[in-house]
Amino acid sequence: MYRSAWAKVLLLSATPLLFPMESLARSDNAYGVNAPFGINELPPGILKKQLEDLSPAAQKRALGWMHRFSFTEQDVPALRVDQSGGVFYEDPVFDGIDPAPSSTPSLSEVTHAEAFTLHSKPGASRVVYLDMDGHVVSGTIWNGSADPLYMRPYDSNGDESSFSQTELNEIAETWKRVAEDFAPYDIDVTTEEPPAFGANVGHILVTRKADENNRNIYNCSCGGVAYVGVWGNSNFPYYQPALVFLDGVGGPHNISEAASHELGHNLSLSHDGNSSTGYYGGHGSGNTDWGPIMGVGYYAQVSQWSKGEYADANNTQDDLQLIADRLTYRTDDHEDVNFSGATPLVITGGTSVNATNPVTDPANTDPSNKGIIEDRTDVDLFFMDVGDGTINLSVTPAWADAFASQSRRGMNLDVKAVLYDEFGYEVAQSNPLSDTYATINVGVAAGRYILSIEGVGVGDPLTNGYTDYGSLGQYFITGSVPEDSVSTTPPTAPTDLSAVQSGDANIALNWTDPLSTAESNEAGYRVYRQIDGGSFVQISTLPRDSSSFSDNNLASGAYVYQVEAYNSAGFSTSNSTIAIVISVPSTASATSENTMMGSIVSGSYQSTVNVSGYERISEQHQGGKPRNRVSQMEHFWTVSGIAPAASVTLDVDATAPANSDGDDFALAYSTDGSNYQPFGMLSNGTGRQVISALLPAGTSGSIFIRVNDTDRTAGNGQNNYLDVYQIVVTSAGEPGDLPPTVTISEPADNTTADAGDWLIFSATASDSEDGDLSGGVSWSSSLDGNLGQGASVQTSTLSLGAHVITATVTDSADNSDSDTVNVTISDPLQNNAPVANTDNASVDQDSSVVISVLSNDTDADGDSLTIGSVTQGTNGSVTNNGSTVTYTPNASFVGSDSFTYNVNDGQGGSDTGTVNVTVNPTGGAVLTVTDVTPNTVGVNQQVEVTIVGTGFTQGASVSFQNGSGPAPSASGVVVVNSTTMTANVFVKAGGPRRNRTWDVVVNNGSSATCSGCITVTP
Fold this sequence. Notes:
This protein is mainly β. Helices cover 6% and strands 39% of the residues. It has six helices and 67 strands. The N and C termini lie far apart (88 Å). 42% of the residues are buried.
């Protein structure tokens, strides 16, 4: 068994849920997502037998569950299903592992309080509780044998009554290693029990199989068990914790490998194996000996998440992406590309570079000179200003220090370090082939240097190495640098900085580079820009002795600049330039059109955008005799994307050839699509011309243009036309502080999705002053809070329920706009509670009755139901038989009684039902008639009536009395039960021509009547 990666449950609506005898095409080795299968297609073994023995409802649930994650044929021996159709992995203990790797005193000992309050990322959106001090397990899937279970704590010395110092160190070391596996993600791995468990709080319990009372939480010869794909579901706590058994697993290295592995199953990751085994043990040698976390990581110095890049891999599941689907990556902690944004290396005493680590500083109170490689593309940049001498730096992964020494490192990151000078030329690099740390040791001249750190692979991943795919995690920078003795005084800043507009949208900066001594000379210049009175933002870094800079392709706005001269001793800032106002006209062209009357003969609005060709629009006549024909035109264009500005102008470039009808063409615009304002007449025969209109102040977004012909005289049936070369709206000048606009383009409003489905949220945002703001759109959920920022964000971890998703954008003037869509997330694995329906029963005095209370109860999931508990009647006793109950009235009691019972579905769902009991006298129930429906019958008609009362017995008859005229007759009497019977009633013609009432008589040997129960109508 190994550590496991977290995985996304892909809930694909197109994936069918297959039943046992179905057989569909699939890959020979693949099952689950995108590889549908039936039970008959599974190889013989425990899993297949368990599935065949399930009830139909549980079988359907199990198959649906198994189609929501991917697994291979080699995985089948490790998969299990419970009686309700839940799916889990049972991972074996592997031979040849050291159950307790040798432990030596750690360099840093932890106290009892510290050992059980460790946190890797406090405040993260996700939490995993690494539970090693024992736990009371209650109300979970594991409580089938007993509830509660008092599970035992971690113990390596045979004394469970207290934790020794060695055991506390081993607990802390296990935490450090599990935390390292999930370091790239927004998750807090903690040894402190969270206040509550829920959909996004995981639980790994390290314990023994038997609890304090020698009751097994799970009976197996395995090293761990965990349900698959349950992370993020509302019933996740019911399927927790993931279990790692001390029996045969061993010390911190093995326990941490197993803990991450089992948690990965919770998140739907399956095993990394090959064609002969479900668990690949890795390859390589020395300190680069490699193994996959979801295979067997026990033997590896480097254990990583994998996507099957080794030889004969049977599983190409993208572990890292599946983890990110559920947990999301943490925010990148250091600049990746631009040297100007590099993080300063903290140098103590002029020469020393120090970094704390999770052992010396578990709470990370000093974040200096360290970082995390979050993904294979991450490159972290640091800068240092040094004097002449030797740079000697080591970059070491998290194995740099230990709470408890282990024979295997078990870390994920392999480091490459590169040193550049300030102009981007490589000075030195380090990437040892036989180890995972990096060392830079090189003599340098005084100046600024950039240290680049990234994760790398080694060797051939097919046989003896690995790629950079899973080379992720923490690193720590230590060593020494030559003291920066050159710059002892901050540089002098220019005092004559000037800005001049050059062209429509460019600004040129110039200044005089001040004279300096060697000790006060600048290392370079930083250029800062302010737009429309906002904050100054750095836009460029220039080398020393620079004296000019060009800022080009600017949007409209007022621009002010400063330059900052800097060196290792400090910086100074120049004067601010005067504001340069850039006003770039914004244009928008027609984007759609439609014709009410007439037709497009050639071209389209698209050809007007670049004035290439033209669009010809012709009138259309009604037909009929020529003297009665009327030709007409009414055509519309829409111009969208109009930016607000001081002035907004509409131009229509067109011509109307001369026509014999004297037909001209009237132009009008509308800002709302309904109220049109005339703005020009295109007269026939006057040649090509541009007709313009100054649109109302504040116009933005879309406008609509309409053209109509002016002559509709009967008989003037010539099809006249006009040619349109271009339609354009120009926005020019500063509009003022107008708010931005944001529009959500996907998903559609009222979208529904299953838990775990990928959802992509996209929006466009713009602002008249700031331009395209799509990258600054902030996304939030009414249920989950912040979802991220950008023109498009993706998530598969929305919680269950109805979400209002809001996209918000704010411009530089602090104006904002928002748009919303409604999204509902449902859970196909969500258990539906059973429904207990009311039961009615009867029993004779001093007798008992067995009542099948479950027979009318329902469960939407088809789960098998059992009776959990019963209450006692007020006038009788109740016995729970498991699937029925027995009611016995108190001695001599006659009358009505009731009690309740609780029904369970085995999945944590329950409901309470009521049972009403009538206790009849020994001689039988009192015979009564209380209602007849229908209660009228016409002469010469036969009507089926229903008679309601008490005490009806088989063989009862129906007759009528106390009426006038021909008496009704009853036939086809059916006694449904003791309270209901039916009969066919017929009345022959004759008697008074008025309504006549008859009493209904039921005879069981005695009789009962219902006065006025049935009326005969003439």
